[in-house]
Amino acid sequence: MMHISARRTPAAPGAVAQAMALLDAGEGAYFGCDAGIAGMHPLQACLVARPLLALHVFADGLEAQGLTPAGSALLAHAALAPFMTASGRGKPGGAAIDALRAFHACLGHSPDAVLLGALGFEAHRLAVDAFEDSPADAPVGAPGTRLGMLYFGDCYLQRDAAGQWTQVTLTLDAVPLSSVGPAPAVATAPAAFEKDVAAQDDFPIGGYAQVVARALVRLRELPLVSLTLSQSFRRNGSVTASSAFARLQSVNPAPASFFVNAGQGERFFGASPDLQLAVREAQLQSFPVCGTVARGCGPVGEAQAFRELVNEEVDAASLAVCSDALRNDLAPLCVPGSLRLLARRRQMSLSTVVHTVDQLQGELRPGADAWDAIVATAAPVMVTGTPRRVALPLIEELEGSPRGWYGGMMVQVAGDGTALVGTILRAAVLRGNVVEVRCGGDLMADSDPPREERESRLKALSLWRALGMEEAAGAGVAMGVHAGANAVAVNLKAGSDPFAQALTDVLKGLGYILQDDAQVTVMAGPNALAAQGVSHTVALGDAAARLLAASGYTVLGIAPQHGRVMHCITSPEAPWPAAAFTSARYATLAVDFDATPLDVQSSWQVWARDEQARPVVLAHSQRRVVCLLMRPDSLMSDEFARGVLRHCLQFASVQGGPLR
After folding, report:
1. Are the C-beta atoms of residues 538 and 628 closer than 8 Å to each other?
2. By C-alpha distance, which of 465, 428, 422, 458 is closest to 440?
3. In angstroms, what CA-CA distances link 342 with 287, 331, 419?
4. What torsion, rounded to 10 degrees, do the Cα atoms 107, 143, 28, 200 define?
5. Interatomic CA distance for residues 660 and 207, integer angstroms
6. C-alpha span between 414 and 421 (Å, rounded)
């Protein structure tokens, strides 16, 4: 057994940023609980850059790799002989976990001997009895595929609940450790997911909803209570991973934030709402999450989102199923009667969405440890379904591509058994010049396919923003509009509009340039001319009313209504996620919908309504025209309203046809 001593010093200014930057080029990992519910989620973080060792996990064993000269020396030390004996391939189920236990035992179960890394979705194969109850046609994968890796470093950074960073430097008996200097040439382990991936989505717009509809049929046919499906979006792009992750952390801190350089040019990062496990002194906790609603702007928008979520019976039922199934997985590891529900449907607010969270707590029985809990909850019911053995082959059948890291686990385990585990969700994976974002959701028999598709795309939005690809990759890809719908130029006709300069500023802020011969026209102002049959146009305020009048709507003059705040609700037909938003009315004209012939109205879809349920956003699919009876460019309008304008411009820029 090797003795470890640890020296703790306050982290130097810039140390965290420097260590993060190292992960762009070299292997290592960051895992932090950066946000959550006060008093529930344990705020902390760990960062390992330039690790000594990489422990590669396989279904049939474990391979240890020295990443530095000191790491190679450590593996050759006599004190690690029991670990090296336990390592290797071609071993029975559970051997990799036994080897990880042996590693910590060789280091005296020191609380400072931290293993940090990631296990992919297929890590459920680590269980000794992984396939005993599986259907005959269940996917098993290739035994030579790496399931994940854990890193060990002699120098790492830790953040406490107060946000203070500490540098931990280890000294090990008779081993000259140093993280400085180039690593030796070593044979790389098999890649986790070697197949080249093209820069294309798993499904076209509407395709995921069709898959969900097929899944609902299977849910009724099979002994399934729930099923979780996902889809990937892929784009070509050049991204600096550490910078993108820093942006994601700043705008979307989450209970399980992570950034991993897995070697061989593969890096992934994300902000998951799901802190899967926390283990300390034999006390085990889990925090299942279910239900997602777009968060409105400000306290009012947040309250409206929570009200919608709390009143959603399907989401409440889904979370109950997740908690019961998770309890079923963890109960064999706990002292009988100790595993209980501490909190039910606690409200958690993140940057773009709100969720509800349950909290389970139990006491590990003698002989059980954090590794047992990790194996028991690998590919948890929250990302597979209930029962898991029935859900796994159905996921293989219905999804458009292998999950890879998605649905896997970020794992941090110390030698004394303290552990933190987060589910890898809402992650961006970078392989070469291809960027992949994958998101999904839990399905029940009464789930709504279009809503599930909108929710899936909504979850991806914060990642596209962090990547700086919301426009280049198409914000519509994340929110329901074709990627080709991006207009890079618009023809602004707003000469008589009193707010023409402000509108110009908003359009430029959305990434558009003004060009007289652009395909898409933006009309605003009281004197804007709207001819019958106009196409590829977005009209605002009175210009929108005039355009509707030219299309056959009944439009009346009214007393001026300027600077009036409007509270709007998205309609199900809109190509952006359902949400409430705030805009402004500047109007001297009003549309009389009751007096407008139904055959005229049938050619238009209503995408949003005001608090009196009057249409305020109308779209004509064949002409690619959108009329906004509001001013999303006003300072009274929130960011979501400006996002609505962007989606309307994207819609107007493509050729006419069905909306979906």
Report:
1. yes
2. 458
3. 10, 15, 20
4. -160
5. 10
6. 12
Place of tokens 């400000």: 298
**Nearest one of 355, 342, 347, 199 to 272, comparing CA atoms:** 355
Q: Alpha-carbon distance 47 to 620, whole Å?
A: 52
Cα 27 to Cα 47: distance, rounded to the nearest angstrom: 11
Identify whether the C-beta of residue 153 lies closer than 8 Å to the C-beta of residue 19: no
Please, what is the angle between helix 15-25 and helix 241-251, to 10°? 130
CA-based torsion, 145, 150, 152, 155: positive or negative = positive
Sign of CA dihedral 213, 217, 219, 222: negative
Q: What share of the chain is helix, strand, coil (3-state, %, to 5)?
A: 30, 30, 40
Q: What pLDDT is stored for residue 133 in this prediction?
A: 44
Provide the CATH number for the domain formed by 483-652 in this structure.
Answer: 3.40.50.880
pLDDT for the residue numbered 416: 97
Q: What is the mean pLDDT of each run of 10 residues along the chain (660 residues)?
A: 93 95 96 92 96 96 96 94 95 90 96 98 81 42 79 97 96 61 38 53 89 93 88 88 90 93 93 94 93 75 81 81 87 92 90 86 96 94 87 95 96 98 94 90 85 80 76 44 48 88 86 89 81 85 95 94 91 88 93 95 95 96 94 88 92 62
Q: Could you tell me the residue ranges of all domains in the chain?
A: 4-130+141-479, 483-652
Kindly state the DSSP code that residue 88 receives in the 8-state scheme. Answer: B
The pLDDT of residue 143: 56
Could you tell me which residues come within 8 angstroms of residue 595 by beta carbon, excluding any fewer than 6 positions away?
Answer: 554
The CATH number given to 4-130+141-479 is: 3.60.120.10
CA-based nearest residue to 107, from 71, 77, 79, 85: 79
Q: Looking at residue 648, what DSSP letter applies?
A: H
Strand order across the 155-159 sheet: 4-10, 165-172, 155-159, 44-49, 28-33, 256-263, 266-272, 427-431, 434-443, 226-236, 385-386
Q: Among candidates 463, 523, 535, which has minimal Cα distance to 496? A: 523
How long, in residues, is the chain?
A: 660
Q: Hey, what long-range contacts does 505-511 have (CB within 8 A, 24 or more apart)? A: 506/632, 506/633, 506/642, 506/645, 507/633, 509/642, 510/471, 510/642, 510/645, 510/646, 510/649, 511/471
